[in-house]
Amino acid sequence: MRRTPRLVLAAVLLALATACTADPAPTTPASGSEDPYLRGSGTLRVLAGSELADLRPILDEAREATGVTVQLTEIGTLDGIERVASGAAARDHDAIWFSSNRYLELHPDAGDKIGVDAKVANSPVVLGLRTSTAQRLGWDKNRPTWSEIAAAAGEGEFTYGMTSPATSNSGYSALVGVAAALAGTGRALTTDEITALTPRLQSFFTGHALTSGSSGWLADAYVHRQTAGVPLGGLINYESVLLSLNAGGRLAEPLTVIYPADGVVTADYPLTLLAGAGEQARANHAAIADFLRRPSTQAKIMERTHRRPAVTGISLASDFGPTDGGLVELPFPTRYEVANKLVSSFGDTLRKPARTIYLLDLSGSMRGNRLEGLQSALLGLSGADTSLSGELTRFNGREQVILVPFSTTVQEPRRFDVPSDDPRPTLDRIRADVQGFSANGDTAIYDALARGLELARDLDTADPGRFTSVVLLTDGERTVGRSLDAFRSLHAGLPATIRSVPVFTLLFGEGNVGEMTEIATLTGGRTFDARTGSLGAVFKEIRGYQ
């Protein structure tokens, strides 16, 4: 019988895989309607974005079918790009798997570091509005343009949450999409056009009321805001996240997904082999890519994660929006400097300015390496870190940085207002202050937390137009001052807007994991694990949430 081209390809790849391993013969899908699975052996080590965690059950099935275990190591977008471009990723990984490679491919040092890729799914970045808001604006029946969305947000018609473009692909895709649509040229942006668009983009971002470093946490924070009595009008996020929220039963009011008429930027989740990967890694990548792109697997990915299939011939579920060419793809920047200009402009001039309150444990147990690590992390945010991620996560122009050291007692806050035009003198003052830290005394954690939120309340009353967040770093348990119960009572009595100020706690040293997690949950924040690795990396990660 004459073989089909697909069977010939499968035979070639299968020969490559079995030449390196003595695995048993490939199994056949239960349906019997697809070709035998390609086989690999061992582990495919993949550097991946956090949003791919929902694919782990699919990857468990892939292991059973192919003999390959996919080991995901989560990393932020900018740190991932740096590791690939520097060659560091290839030292301990075989492949990368981000929501998109577009930004990475612009990096001048990345082109020879990546090899073949396999697109696994699609998910456009769109707007989800509370149904009542969408109906009031008439967008449940008529698709608005990004210009109309920007105008309505600027006029206070709705508020929304969006991830930070400096740390999350969904936020960066949203920024690219709205900027390209507002420019209206039909081609990639230039740096001059970004500058000219600044007033219109600033108007759009007046509606931005919740930020995040990840698309998943943004959805959780949106739900928390509802229960805290400070609801938002909607979210800008992946279509898959919005549809998952609607399907999850956590919303008091469902979201109407708005697909802008002038276009979107779509994530395509390319599983990408790193250049120089060994023969076994190539065979494993081929086996996993083949498994993920099979129609049966694509249908499961669509059903379980609400992402669109990456292959043709699969009917979309009814909850998806426009199909058959109904989604125009907006142009992505074609030059690295333009891509970076968008991110830096967002932080310094476009977004609402941030207010970051750092509660810093300077008790006796912080002496030595721990204090040096804390100082290094804050110096990095003040401009000492000249890496790509350091440049794009430094303290921004217009940001209000407040350092509140504590030990036996809580010290007076040190406030620094970073100007947009010449931030260096202010950043120098922050560095000088941090370099003067010394560690002594006991640990009044909850006195510091109470002071931080009271400070947030007072500052928000005087200047409410900011993103306010609190970061708590402690390496031990409370030894003096008010208790956790006393803090809970104080927190319950705060205004709703201050109760919703997120506290980001760091697991560090001998800190109480249970209490740190409870504080984060109570305030709608998140816990970050700084017990291994550098504090600098964790502080940069937190920047996406501020």
Structural descriptors:
alpha/beta; 7-stranded mixed sheet; 22 helices; 546 residues
Report on the architecture of this protein.
There is one protein chain. This protein is of the alpha/beta class and 546 residues long. It has helices at 5-19, 56-66, 77-86, 89-92, 102-106, 131-137, 146-154, 169-183, 191-205, 215-228, 239-248, 279-293, 295-305, 336-350, 369-384, 388-393, 424-435, 445-462, 484-492, 496-499, 513-523, 535-543; strands spanning 42-48, 68-74, 95-97, 114-119, 121-130, 160-163, 208-212, 234-238, 255-258, 266-267, 270-274, 308-309, 354-361, 400-406, 414-417, 467-473, 503-507, 527-529. The strands form 3 sheets. Strands 5, 6, 7, 8, 9, 10 and 12 form a 7-stranded mixed beta sheet that branches. Helix 8 (169-183) crosses helix 9, helix 9 (191-205) packs parallel to helix 14 (336-350) and helix 18 (445-462) runs parallel beside helix 19. The termini are far apart. Mean pLDDT is 92; it is low at 1-32. It comes from Polymorphospora lycopeni.
